[in-house]
Amino acid sequence: MMFNELVQKSAIAVPDDAIILLEKAISLYKGSFLKGIEIAWAEDRRKELQEEYGEALAALAKLKEQRSQKQEALGLYLRALSHLPHREDLASHVMRLYREHNMHTDALLIYQRLRQELQQRLGVQPAPQLQNLMQQIQKEM
Questions:
Q1: Which one, of 104, 18, 98, 110, lies nearest residue 58 by Cα?
Q2: Which one of 13, 78, 80, 89 is CB 3.0 to 4.6 Å from 17, fit for a cystine?
């Protein structure tokens, strides 16, 4: 099966099967599609695959977190966030997990990177819920 098929099948699979499908899909991803080719269709496909890869990482992270595999989930969320740096939900998961591990400085760095990304890309600030999480973490330091 191809990367896309595995990701699609994981969306409707039971959690145990979804984990297997997502792990297989993630293992198939080899980086930027046709890297170095500056043709519009190749650039569009490269972006689509990168986003789908980030979504697969995020889905697997969520499943791992639900199984209390928090260290593994954190690593997957971080990888997903590197491909989808504007995603507030991913930043929130990372910040929360860092907080649970008393890694407050790292949690705040994630917030700062997200704030910068949102400001540059969309001209907006993080959602109030994320701002509140950041303030709670600051108080715990």
A1: 18
A2: 13
Note the pLDDT tens digit of each residue in 18-29. Answer: 999 999 999 988
According to the model, what pLDDT value does residue 37 have? Answer: 66
Q: Is residue 139 part of a domain?
A: yes
d(CA 4, CA 49): 8
Rounded-to-10 torsion of CA 32, 38, 40, 41: -50
Measure the CA–CA gap between 118 and 17, rounded to whole angstroms: 35
Report yes or no on 45 lying in a domain. yes
Structural domain span for residue 5? 1-69
Do 42 and 98 sit in the same domain of this protein? no
**Spatial separation of the C-alpha atoms in residues 17 and 127, rounded to whole Å:** 33
Reported as a single tens digit per residue, the pLDDT across 42-85 is 778 878 888 999 999 999 999 999 999 999 999 999 999 999 99
**Quick one: which of 12, 47, 45, 49 has its CA closest to 29?**
49
pTM over 0.85: yes
Number of domains in the chain: 2
CB-CB neighbours of 16 under 10 Å? 10
